[in-house]
């Protein structure tokens, strides 16, 4: 999300996540962790190898459906470019935009247009040119704006007959067929000629001979340099309401939606426009059935633009705690504050960006650069939020890894950047946290700004329909990031359920891609009523699912746009002359009978601080200075010790920590300077200090803010504001070079430390990440040893930006109309890349020192079932989704009421005219009418329930061998068997599957007194031991060879290993 326009006037076992069809304890103060983590799904009995289909044998057949689910790279000679000469390419319209009424003469049907033939160049498909000509003559129809965008996207899609996915499996091209033209061709050729039979079989023979001679190169996966990626279509959108845990919510939603008319349904799916309500996102309510206007509000670390709330530590700090209980507690506090302020949907947590690019601007909103760490933190946060009855949002789906070129209106490009990825990396890395979020029962998923494989995320049918709604079994609703929707009909058919903030292609212009456009599309059937009903039902079902129908007070009690008590209800409209009580100043910082939320914030900030260096036990410091043999004085240097102009001086925190829509207004900030003054009094500052604390930072954020020459993504990984030179100067001069310099780093991500960290004067380094409002207090807790230094790095700190690999580099400049970010090494993210290329990092993923010492021993595994290659077959759901009758409103009933005075720029669902509402026959995308084969990887929340069967129980003993209490993080990593092969379809050639050296699969944080020992038990699931097979389109567990199970303190400190 973007934009800031506020007016300032004043446990170790990975259990199943519980279903929230059980009572939500809104007013309960605490819940035991054990009760919340009870398994909710039955364990499947183990099966023998005999029951398993040998999927990897050479006799496997390719089905058309299997081919259709690949993500495809194209050859060099079909590079996409919106401004390129289309006459030289084979154009195919793949988008549903071609189904709009703007493509048809009024009242006509496609089959009636036999005389509309147009001569076209030989190389170009007739249907493409015909559609362009229809569009030229019908641009002024009511749906023109929406379909113009659709067609522009469609006209840039190209196909090759030899397309192949990342593993070389051919994919059948998709085309939209002109049925009337096919009939004429049939009469002209198929009905009157017979030579085509001979030609067909002759061509097939040549084709087979070619394969034999060339060794099936396209199956082997031979790829040229610079290939492009294309999406694969997946239609229609799966219907919600097929999960038992949501069945009652969908029943209630059906009964409510069945009473709504078309205009009311559209009003729920379309936002009312930017600043057209008190929240950053607002929908229409339906008073006749008791459904309220929904309030959607940022964000991932607190409530943006709200008063009397808590500025919690950022996601990256939360990830650095590696503490599941704190992740859950922080989420619960976020939920309580949202509930207290009347927010229905909180726009967080974020698990994309994943952190593939260490300089990425929004990495700090998420939890770290590993899918398992991200998944655990996201799931715990979601459960914390939603146990209060507030809907959480998993974002940004998916591959929102950089800010440069993320959306056209922020840059000079006509199109957003395309993040291009293979199917295996997509599943094993970037979709993994979203799967766990769905399994945690998340209410909403937000699609991202940029393209994925050259299709905008919010209209990518493969991502939304195929992966999210079918494979992952998502039952909630998909909402767009703010202005991320780039088409009308296509986004609807591709699975988008809610358009936010309602405006279309430009901010606050009152022009929508849905709203009245969607009303017309439903009337003329270019968007089927079944799809619209499902969109509305998903939203209403989520509202029932989290018991928001029981809320006594509805609507927000604050305004995002003013700090005054009185204000406008719709400040984005120049026509709004309302003056109402918009701010009630409800204190959300404390819940009745519970701790202040600031206490949780302080705990998270302290445990999220990572001790990287500690020479001769410089830390913890002593308030009495006795440890340093006499009195000493302390100097504090660096701008980051305290904000001179106040914590809220810059809009959306554009100058003091990660910035953008993920920030909040600080209610207060305990700066390090203030906290240190309280800890040490009567000190003076000079260069003779025995100890110096230097505060440095590295900042970045969302792309719509530009600060200190940074356009969202950091320009490099060095300290900013001359920090490197300053820390070197301080370290050399402190105590004439004999002093102790302690460096505290506040950063949105990894920083290159090599220029100064080895200086003799630098005795200790604390990586405090982004600690929130309790920054100073949390720092004092760690500096003086009031709590152990127990944070662990949620990413790798390299010695240079280049260490992270080519896929980790932000694309800062491009001449391409559609910027291309080819993430070819996306599987090898962060520490996986370092391990793969044997690069020594400065500090590895998971690293962190403690004030005490720990010993790990007695690593044991206990197999719970035999290995089998595939999960259990997907079971057909016996729960049918809601169905509605085929009734359609008449266009006249959808017109703006004559006595209604509309506000300018407000997005209404009403029609202004009935033009373009005539029903017609539309050329939907190929495959839209074909019933898709459900993914075998699906069948339950997050995927096939069999994927979460426990395969291994792992135990390890940990002992605190140091002089004081402390906390240690036990990390479990898995190395896959050395040789795993798949057969390539019709070829007898085997393909060896490549794996990272090791991958994180589980972790737990343990607190121990001095001398205390504990045995920690963890489990590894089927999914933990599986890889995503692109050819099989399923998770495959290697049954041959030996796994290695590692236990240790970081990705490179793994003293214990056992084979399985």
TrEMBL record:
Biased composition range(s): Basic and acidic residues: 26-36, 67-80, 921-934
Reaction it catalyzes: Hydrolysis of terminal, non-reducing beta-D-glucosyl residues with release of beta-D-glucose
Region (Disordered): 1-116, 557-579, 865-889, 921-944
Biological or metabolic pathway of the protein: Glycan metabolism; cellulose degradation
Compositionally biased tracts (Low complexity): 96-107
E.C. number: 3.2.1.21
An annotated Gene Ontology molecular function: beta-glucosidase activity
Record protein name field: Probable beta-glucosidase E
Species whose genome carries this gene: Penicillium hetheringtonii
């Amino acid at each position: 999300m973007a934009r800031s326009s506020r007016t300032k006037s004043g446990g170790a076992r990975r259990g199943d996540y519980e279903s929230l069809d059980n009572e939500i304890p809104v007013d309960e103060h605490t819940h035991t962790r054990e009760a919340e983590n009870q398994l909710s799904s039955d364990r499947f009995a183990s099966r023998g190898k005999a029951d398993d289909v040998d999927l990897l044998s050479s006799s496997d057949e390719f089905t058309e459906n299997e081919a259709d689910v690949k993500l495809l790279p194209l050859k060099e000679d079909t590079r996409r470019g919106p401004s390129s000469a289309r006459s030289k390419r084979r154009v195919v319209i793949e988008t549903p935009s071609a189904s709009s009424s703007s493509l048809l003469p009024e009242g006509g049907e496609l089959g009636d247009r036999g005389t509309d033939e147009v001569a076209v160049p030989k190389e170009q498909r007739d249907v493409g040119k015909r559609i362009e000509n229809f569009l030229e003559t019908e641009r002024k129809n009511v749906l023109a704006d929406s379909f113009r965008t659709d067609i522009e996207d469609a006209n840039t899609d190209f196909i090759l007959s030899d397309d192949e996915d990342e593993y070389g499996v051919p994919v059948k091209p998709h085309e939209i067929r002109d049925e009337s033209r096919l009939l004429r061709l049939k009469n002209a050729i198929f009905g009157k000629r017979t030579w085509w039979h001979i030609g067909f079989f002759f061509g097939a023979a040549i084709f087979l001979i070619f394969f034999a001679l060339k060794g099936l190169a396209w199956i082997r996966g031979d790829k040229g340099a610079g290939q492009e990626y294309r999406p694969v279509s997946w239609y229609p959108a799966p219907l919600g309401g097929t999960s038992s845990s949501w069945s009652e919510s969908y029943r209630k939603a059906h009964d409510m939606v069945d009473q709504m008319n078309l205009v009311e349904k559209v009003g729920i799916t379309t936002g009312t426009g930017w600043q057209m309500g008190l929240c950053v996102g607002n929908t229409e309510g339906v008073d006749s059935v008791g459904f309220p206007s929904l309030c959607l509000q940022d964000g991932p670390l607190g409530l943006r633009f709200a008063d009397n709330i808590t500025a919690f530590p950022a996601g990256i700090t939360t990830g650095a705690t590696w503490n599941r209980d704190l992740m859950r507690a922080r989420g619960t506090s976020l939920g309580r504050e949202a509930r207290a302020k009347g927010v229905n949907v909180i726009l967080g947590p974020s698990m994309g960006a994943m952190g593939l690019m260490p300089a990425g601007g929004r990495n700090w909103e998420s939890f770290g650069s590993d899918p398992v760490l991200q998944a655990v933190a996201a799931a715990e946060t979601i459960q914390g939020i939603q146990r209060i009855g507030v809907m959480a949002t998993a974002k940004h789906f998916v591959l929102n890894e950089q800010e440069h070129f993320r959306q056209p209106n922020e840059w000079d490009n006509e199109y957003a950047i395309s993040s291009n990825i293979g199917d295996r990396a997509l599943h094993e890395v970037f979709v993994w946290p979203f799967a766990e979020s769905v399994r945690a029962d998340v209410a909403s998923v937000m699609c991202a700004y940029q393209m994925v494989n050259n299709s905008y995320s919010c209209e990518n049918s493969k991502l939304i329909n195929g992966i999210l709604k079918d494979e992952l079994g998502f039952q909630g609703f998909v909402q767009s990031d703010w202005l991320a929707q780039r088409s009308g009909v296509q986004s609807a058919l591709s699975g988008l359920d809610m358009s936010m903030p309602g405006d279309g292609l430009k901010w606050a212009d009152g022009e929508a891609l849905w709203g009245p456009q969607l009303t017309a599309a439903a009337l003329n059937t270019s968007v089927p009523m079944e799809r619209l009903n499902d969109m509305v039902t998903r939203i209403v079902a989520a509202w029932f699912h989290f018991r928001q129908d029981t809320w006594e007070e509805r609507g927000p009690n604050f305004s995002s746009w003013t700090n005054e008590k009185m204000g406008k209800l719709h400040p984005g409209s120049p026509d709004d002359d309302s003056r109402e009580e918009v701010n009630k100043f409800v204190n959300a910082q404390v819940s009745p009978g519970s701790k202040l939320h600031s206490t949780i914030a302080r705990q998270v900030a302290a445990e999220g601080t990572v001790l990287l260096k500690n020479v001769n036990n410089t830390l913890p410091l002593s308030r009495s200075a006795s440890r340093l043999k006499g009195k000493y004085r302390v100097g504090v240097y660096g701008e980051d010790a305290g904000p001179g102009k106040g914590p809220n001086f810059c809009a959306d925190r554009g100058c003091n920590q990660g910035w953008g829509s993920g920030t909040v207004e600080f209610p207060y900030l305990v700066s390090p300077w203030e906290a240190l003054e309280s800890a040490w009094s009567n000190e003076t500052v000079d260069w003779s200090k025995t100890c110096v604390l230097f505060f440095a930072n590295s900042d970045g954020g969302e792309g719509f803010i530009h600060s200190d020459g940074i356009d969202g993504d950091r320009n490099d990984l060095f300290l900013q504001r001359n920090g490197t030179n300053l820390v070197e100067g301080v370290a050399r001069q402190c105590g004439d070079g004999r002093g102790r310099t302690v460096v505290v780093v506040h950063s949105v991500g990894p920083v290159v430390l090599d220029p100064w960290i080895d200086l003799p004067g630098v005795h200790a380094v604390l990586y405090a990440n982004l600690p929130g409002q309790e920054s100073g207090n949390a720092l004092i807790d760690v500096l003086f040893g009031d709590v152990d230094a127990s944070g662990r790095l949620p990413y790798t700190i390299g010695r240079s930006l280049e260490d992270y690999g080519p896929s980790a580099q932000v694309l800062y400049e491009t001449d391409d109309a559609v910027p291309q970010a080819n993430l070819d090494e996306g599987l090898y993210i962060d520490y996986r890349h370092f391990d793969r290329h044997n690069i020594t990092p400065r500090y590895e993923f998971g690293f962190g020192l403690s004030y005490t010492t720990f010993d790990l021993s007695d690593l044991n595994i206990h197999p719970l079932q035999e290995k089998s290659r595939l999960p259990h077959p997907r079971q057909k759901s016996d729960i049918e989704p809601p169905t509605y009758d085929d009734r359609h409103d008449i266009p006249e009933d959808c017109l703006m009421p004559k006595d209604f005075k509309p506000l300018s720029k407000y997005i209404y669902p009403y029609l202004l005219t009935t033009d373009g509402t005539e029903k017609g026959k539309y050329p939907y995308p190929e495959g839209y009418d074909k019933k898709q084969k459900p993914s075998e990887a699906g069948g339950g929340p997050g995927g096939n329930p069999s994927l979460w069967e426990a395969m291994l129980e792992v135990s390890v003993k940990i002992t605190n061998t140091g002089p004081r209490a402390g906390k240690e993080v036990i990390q479990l990593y898995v190395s896959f068997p050395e040789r795993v092969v798949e057969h390539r379809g019709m070829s007898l050639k085997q393909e060896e599957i490549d794996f990272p050296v090791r991958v994180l699969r589980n972790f737990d944080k343990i607190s121990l007194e001095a001398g205390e020992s504990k045995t920690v038990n963890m489990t590894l699931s089927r999914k933990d031991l599986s890889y995503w097979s692109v050819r099989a389109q399923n998770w495959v567990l290697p049954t041959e060879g030996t796994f290695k199970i590692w236990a240790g303190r970081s990705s490179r400190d793994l003293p214990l290993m056992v084979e399985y």
